[in-house]
Amino acid sequence: QVHLVETGGGAVQAGGSLRLSCAASGSVSSNSDMGWFRQAPGKEREFVAVITRSPSGVTTNYRDSVKGRFTLSRDNTKNTLYLQMNSLKPEDTAVYYCATKGVAFKPGLRPGNFDYWGQGTQVTVSS
Fold first, then answer.
1. What is the torsion angle, in degrees rounded to the nearest 10, for the CA atoms of residue 126, residue 36, residue 118 and residue 44?
2. Distance separating alpha carbons of residues 46 and 28, to the nearest angstrom
3. Which of 15, 53, 55, 108 is deepest in the core (most CB within 10 A)?
4. Series of mean pLDDT values for 10-residue runs along the chain (127 residues)
């Protein structure tokens, strides 16, 4: 089992910044993909940024709409994932969820490909 706890959400004005953290505990594997998803009211949960691992290396994947604004990083020594969000826009408003997979090198970036989820943290960006 893996337990994920997100912190760092809040309310900011457009153009502001927030840093989300996700602390993982339990049977955490540094080889398992880990990342952030978000869900706005009335919308499906969507991929935001994920670090994926394969036998050939590590890749950081970003949703097109957040490229250049969001930065994903992982500190394996602390089992913590970070999402630095800059130049926030009202359309970034959502509940942000941290997620990871229970199996190393498991492919896929859809929510259904991830096995463990945090409780979510609200991010609200006002115009």
1. 70
2. 23
3. 53
4. 95 98 88 94 96 88 97 92 98 97 88 96 97
Tokens of 7: 């912190």
**Tokens linked to 89:** 């826009």
- DSSP class of residue 56 equals T
Record the tokens describing residue 3, joined without a space: 């337990």
Q: Are 100 and 34 in contact (CB under 8 A)?
A: yes
**Angle at alpha carbon of residue 8, lines to 2 and 121, rounded to 5°:** 65
User: What is the rounded CA–CA span in Å between residue 22 and residue 121?
Assistant: 10
Q: Which one-letter DSSP state was computed for residue 92?
A: G
Tokens coding 10: 């809040």
